[in-house]
Design a protein that fits this description.
The chain is mostly beta strands. The chain has helices at residues 128-131, 180-187; strands at 2-4, 12-13, 21-24, 28-31, 39-42, 50-61, 80-92, 97-98, 122-123, 158-167, 191-201.
Length: 209
Amino acid sequence: MQLFSESFSDHGAIPGEFAFCVADPLRHVRLGGNRNPHLAWRDVPAATQSFVLICADPDVPSRGDDVNREGSVVSASLPRVEFFHWLLVDLPASASEIRAGEFSTVVTPRGKAGPSAAKGARQGINDYTGWFDGDPDMRGDYFGYDGPCPPWNDELVHRYVFTLYALDVAQLPAHGPLTGAVIRAAMAGHILDTATLTGRYTLNPAIVL
């Protein structure tokens, strides 16, 4: 199975229109377009009954002490953890493409509605839900796609790994809050094939992609 995009090349830079935040010379960052990128796939297993799509950033700082702090940097040597940006399940087997902006077109304070989504799919809760938990203006359940917004002082370029899973069930056997851990556990034993596509993004003005 192959996964590709018209929005960015594999291991290439993700344009700002698909990011939660873009660089700003005065304030470090400002809100980006937050559109979901175009994705398409081919060479699907014949027995496929549905798809799951996950986008995760494996390069998130494990500690927040220096994140977005004036006069500090987030060291590239700091241990990293995973952050889910998009969790989409029950995409029908007939689907072969997601249009740019089909599932997200703007940053939505307090999060987009869910879990019901286009194409009869369900969207999980991404990790901006926890990130904004202490912010009264942004707190909420962030369903669906919300794009890159790495620390503007991070020495490390972040990777955004889009993984498509072909499953042998029409509906993922998962209920309740659809978190990344819940979805991955529910897919166990049902995965026929996978394909990945990786984009790169930074808000650090000292780094040129």
